[in-house]
Amino acid sequence: MPFTIAIIGRPNVGKSTLFNRLVGKRTALVDDLPGVTRDRRIGDGQLAHLSFRVIDTAGLEEAFDDSLEARMRQQTEIALQESDVALMMIDARAGVTPLDAHFANWLRRQGRPVILVANKCEGRAAEAGMHEAWALGLGEPVAISAAHGQGLVDLLDALRPLMPEDAGEDDSLVDDDDQVMPEEEGEGDVVDPEVELNRPIRLAIIGRPNVGKSTLMNALLRENRVLTGPEAGITRDAIMVDWSWRGQVIKLVDTAGLRRKARIDKIDDKLEFMSVGDTLETIRLAHVCVLVLDAGAIMDKQDLTIARHVIEEGRALVIAINKWDTVEDHAKALQQLSDKLQTSMPQVRGVPTVTMSALRNQKLDKLMDAVLDIHKVWNRRVRTGPLNRWLPAMLDAHPPQLVRGRRLKIRYITQVKARPPTFALFVSQAEEFPDSYLRYLVNGLRESFKLNGVPIRVVLRQPKNPYADKD
């Protein structure tokens, strides 16, 4: 395990801002409202030549019951146990509060090295708080401004004596997805399964609030990695965890629930707007999305909206019907789902559907098998030869209609990329090509080349007329 740093402190002192600064990305949600962060977030940080793993935590609250605040505190305690050093952060402009003093005493008893970090020190208003920080008994405070990047050199000097000499030489911190992936080699090449196995799959768990997304993530990881509970909307950040399933490397992402826009007030639910934006960005970057449905309300309007968005982004989709153990009439529920998919999403046939129970750990193997299978289809490439032997048969079975009295000519087809499968179709009148005939060809591609369940894109290309610019 690489050297690990946990950022700890009361709410709204700038922990997530420092986390984003250390990892070099705006991954954690940041806002002036206290209590934005709830789950612990792990990232790969760097200061100069020193590389390490950094954990962002929820604001410490003095709660020890079954409340949400108490569960957040437990997540912070787990982060401290996993860390080599803790950064105790205070707001220097606000000065030392009784809550700061309480948790400074708690940290001293945990047996971990602690560095006191005084944030928001970019002006004279922080001088009094800096002097007060000495009273916490954690040594000399390190003055920084996480928002402006000031004082990080001093933080580096404080961390260096606590870190191993080879901390900057850890290659495990390299994120494969941050590297430029080579394009598929040559026309019609098939991705080698053994090579693909070494590339992580970005798997996003999405859905409406309170359908069991976080419970599913914990069930897959077999640990209480993210907060769960009866309250709707607990998850705010998209939390990514590196994981593996039967040798396949997976970046598993839990996301915030997506409600209908009409139910979100832009002023009162500012954080939810930020969370929704984070979730939509996660979908855009995902390879496979697992849409979790509540068995008690299968595929309502919002579920369909989310599913359509996944398909429009070109991601592979798996539908997981959670809480299946609570359903009495299984056949009726499955028929209801099938009818809604056929009427509302005919453009994607064969989307894999898995019935499961995350709380009871039922059919998780079946769910992951469906994820790996649809990922292979999403990566599939079809050679140009078979495509152009298939095309004349489709044209003979149903010739294209006339457009302005002229017959459409379809000359050639080739696959230009995978992820999702994308084809270039060379035609005579691209701008006037009928949508109905394009759907006919897409359905033929899906059935003939076993591309069920994934979005298929067809780009119409028209050869340039060599006589167009001549008088």
Would you write up a description of this structure?
The protein has helices spanning 15-23, 68-82, 98-108, 127-133, 152-159, 193-197, 213-221, 270-285, 301-312, 330-344, 364-378, 384-397, 435-448; strands spanning 4-8, 41-47, 50-56, 85-91, 114-119, 142-143, 201-207, 239-245, 248-254, 288-294, 316-322, 353-355, 402-403, 406-407, 410-417, 422-427, 457-461. The protein is of the alpha/beta class and 471 residues long. It has three domains: 4-170, Rossmann fold (3-Layer(aba) Sandwich), CATH 3.40.50.300; 184-378, Rossmann fold, CATH 3.40.50; 384-461, GMP Synthetase, Chain A, domain 3. The strands form four sheets. The chain has a six-stranded mixed sheet, sandwiched between helices. Strands 8-9-7-10-11-12 form a six-stranded mixed sheet, sandwiched between helices. A three-stranded mixed sheet has the order 15-16-17. The chain starts with a strand and ends in a 10-residue tail after the last strand. GTP 1 binds at residues 9-16, 56-60, 119-122. Keywords: GTP-binding, Nucleotide-binding, Repeat, Ribosome biogenesis.
